[in-house]
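Let us practice reading a record.
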Amino acid sequence: MAVTSTAVKLRRLRQRFGIRAPKVAIRTHVAWYWRGGAIVLLLSLSLALAAWVYDAGRSIAGFDSRSTSRELTELKDRIVELDAELSVVRGVASAADSNLKIERVAQQQLAQQVRLLESENSALKQDLAFFEGLLPDNVGGEQGVRINRFRIESDGASGQRRYRLLVIHNASRQQKEFRGELQFVLKVQQGGKDVMITVPSETDSDKQRYKLEVKHFQRAEGILPVPPGAILKSVEARILQDGVVRVRQTVNL
């Protein structure tokens, strides 16, 4: 029994202090506040390193706060300069616009004056032709009444025909004014046949407007009553005195 007890003790000693014995770590005892201080120090260093890395990254990427502030200040100054230049340009543009408006008004006034002068020139030409028509064809020619500047015109969208003519009375100072009447003979094609229409007709109630009282000259114009669907071929203007035709003139269409 003694041998067995001794063997057991030896086995236990080998297990505890032999090669197979469990490893034992020997550590120095450190107080908790030292450990806390070390942790705080490591955290501070880590934060400082992270801040440095962040600033370095912003600088490398072009996001430096100092340079950004400087660039922002430069941009603000540039905006102020551009606003000043824009004000100057707006002033110049406003002055140019005012000058353009003045020139436009002047051009409109000149164009209006040109139109008035052209209208006056046309009227003067008409008056000149009119007074030239008052002169006899030859000096010492036969005196009497004649038709001048007889023409037929379309009366716009109505489709009617308008006549215009000038009655001239070449008379001496002793002769009185000419009294007579104006008459038109219309040749129209209607229903495939030629038809003659006299204006004014015997039953026309408005014969008075065809009366003539000419001392030197008299203008006459009006609408010719062309039947609907008829084609006007020619118009003969006549001047009658006491039922006798004194002069006639024909316009073919």
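A brief commentary: Residues 71-134 form one domain.
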